[in-house]
Amino acid sequence: MHPDDPESDSEVIEYTRDDKIDDARTSILDFFIQNPEEVFYERQLTVIFEKIYFHWITVKALLELAAGGSINSQMLELVPGVPIRFFWARGNRYWRRQAGHTTNLVRRFSENSFIHAIGFQGELLVDAALPLADFAQVARNVRSFNDKTWIATGHNLDRIVEREGIFYGVEIKNTLPYIPRDEFRIKLEMCKHLGLTPLFVSRMAPKNYNYEIIERGGLSWILGTQFYPFGHQELAAEVRERLRLPVDCPSRIEDGAVTRLLKAIAWQGRRAARSGDK
After folding, report:
1. How confident is the model over 78-109, as pLDDT tens digits?
2. I need a labelling partner for 111 at 20 to 30 A (CA). Which of 30, 104, 156, 174 fits?
3. 128 and 105 within one domain
């Protein structure tokens, strides 16, 4: 199992209590009332509720509900040393059987080799889509540009691309969770140090990340779906249907996503022009 894909949003402990947690508690409790015979794991629930609440808000709400006895919770092991926390409605006597089925399915897409293949697939599809928005690739997996080198950490940028004379530092995250906060900030600083405009491509990102990117003059391209490697359509369909997770196995990134990127570029250009007029 890949150590960078734990089934827990551990960063939750770093956030102070937010009033949104109370709203989330109500929504999540209603959800369990409507699904009394189902069992869900933590990462799954953060994704199910991500259009309404930040991942860490959902986790805090879940833990508070479980601590208060409103729902049940149990930490199991995905594999030895890798935890996976389950939640289910009170009164569900057969939760362990369903948790076992879910654990087996999660293991299938959490193997190291499959995690690496997912990352490669995301890069492959993004590489094919960016030229449709008139981006030209300049470099791959780099930490140097124009006689400047990033030496503060061992990180690389996934790509450097160019469009209309502007050079972008690209970070591609084909993952269910957000890019970790520390890594996100490092990649932003790398772009600043190397004189690059940030371009983050991800399945999903919280609004505060997007705000920081935009304030740096950059772009956040949200794709919404995690892309599985070619040939795994049946697994993707099973994960979508059984776990309600937004995964797919497409041959290309949809035209609508490229159109959204072009609109974001145009909007950022108008924003920069207004700032220059002041």
Report:
1. 999 999 999 999 999 999 999 999 999 999 99
2. 156
3. no
Neighbour-count burial of 278, counting CB atoms closer than 10 A to its CB (0-12 exposed, 13-18 middle, 19+ buried): exposed
CB atoms within 10 A of CB 103: 19
Phi, psi of 58 (to 5 degrees): -60, -45
Residue with tokens 């293991």, as numbered in its chain: 107
Query: What domain range includes position 126?
Result: 113-277
Does 233 share its domain with 179? yes
Residues 136 and 257 reside in one and the same domain? yes
Of 110, 134, 154, the residue that ends a domain is 110
Check whether residue 217 and residue 119 sit in a common domain.
yes
CA separation for the pair 237, 249 (Å, rounded): 9
SS3 201: strand
Question: In whole angstroms, what is the distance from residue 39 CA to residue 72 CA?
Answer: 10
Helix (H) / strand (E) element for 139: namely strand 136-142
Residue 253: what are its φ and ψ, rounded to 5°? -75, 135
Note the pLDDT tens digit of each residue in 237-267.
999 999 999 999 999 999 999 999 999 999 9
Query: Is the domain of 86 the same as that of 135?
Result: no
DSSP string, 51-101: TTS-HHHHHHHHHHHHHTTSEEEEEEEEETTEEEEEEEETT-TTHHHHHHH
The pTM of the full predicted model, rounded to 2 decimals, is 0.91
Question: Are residues 199 and 102 part of one domain?
Answer: no
